[in-house]
Amino acid sequence: MTERADSYGDYWDLYVRSIFPQIRAERDPAAERLLWPGDEWGTPDIWSKIFEMVFVPELDPGLARAVEIGPGAGKYTAMVLERYPLATVLAADVSAAYLAVLADRLAPAVAAGRLALIRLEPDWDQFRRIAAERGWEGTVDLVFSIDAMVHVDLQFLVAYWMGAAAMLRPGGKMIMSVADATSPHGFDKLIADVPTYFAAQGKITSKFEWLCPPMVAHVLDRLGFDVRFVPKLAGRDCWFVATRRAVTPASATGPAR
How many angstroms separate the CA atoms of 190 and 180, rounded? Predict the structure, then answer.
């Protein structure tokens, strides 16, 4: 492969346009199940069980406003739109190619005004600006990101958490999965990936950025969330539901000067 990624968005564009088609070709005849980029990570049965276990018990049937970070091809986007008929979803991704796939896959929802797509920019305050522009500050019911934040360093991830704090109403939920280096499967992957990524220092890759539950709980508490972990899904990743508290702490208002 001669193509090169100069930014994180470029990497995932490359994944959609070049790497996924190669994976699909190599997995024949199983490739008939790989309809969209990302289908190679799990199965529809697993994704549905996760949705029923994590999302459904936490969310009101009348859910109206949701924000998704890193939707990819939209497997969870589609489930939210189907299960919550009153919902409008704002989906934000670094990859233009993934957004194009999502727009194609869920074209009826886009046409109906139930799904809006936004390209993520290297601006820590983008979500706060988006909320202000749309009049969504403190009114969003759900912010979610599944299988995307495993690739995001804590220093960058916290910008999304601060954005969620600005968007969510009191009692609103943030549902997310991040990579957990302290779990048995997470530790195994951390060690297994050393030969793959050590030589790629400084390059754009899909390597995991490792966290652990205590770090997640501490930072989100300081940002105004009550955190509940989902132990039944504690494999390689840390799954959590963070509920927005009513009072916004000073630490969530912006970076230290």
Answer: 9
Q: Comparing C-alpha atoms, which of 162, 148, 204, 233 is closest to residue 5?
A: 204
Burial (0-12, 13-18, 19+ Cβ within 10 Å), 257: exposed
Please give the helix or strand (H or E) that residue 175 lies within, else none.
Answer: strand 168-180
Options 3.40.50.300, 3.40.50.150, 3.30.1130.10, 3.30.450.40; CATH for 43-245 is 3.40.50.150
Cβ pair 246, 230 in contact under 8 A: no
Question: Where do the domains of the chain lie?
Answer: 43-245
Spell out where 65-167 has E strands: 65-69, 88-93, 115-119, 140-145
Measured in whole angstroms, how far is the alpha carbon of residue 172 from the centre of its chain? 17
pTM of structure: 0.91
Residue-level length of the chain: 257
**If 0-12 CB within 10 Å is exposed, 13-18 middle and 19+ buried, where does residue 193 land?**
middle
pLDDT digits (tens, 9 = 90+) for 3-26: 566 788 999 999 999 999 999 888
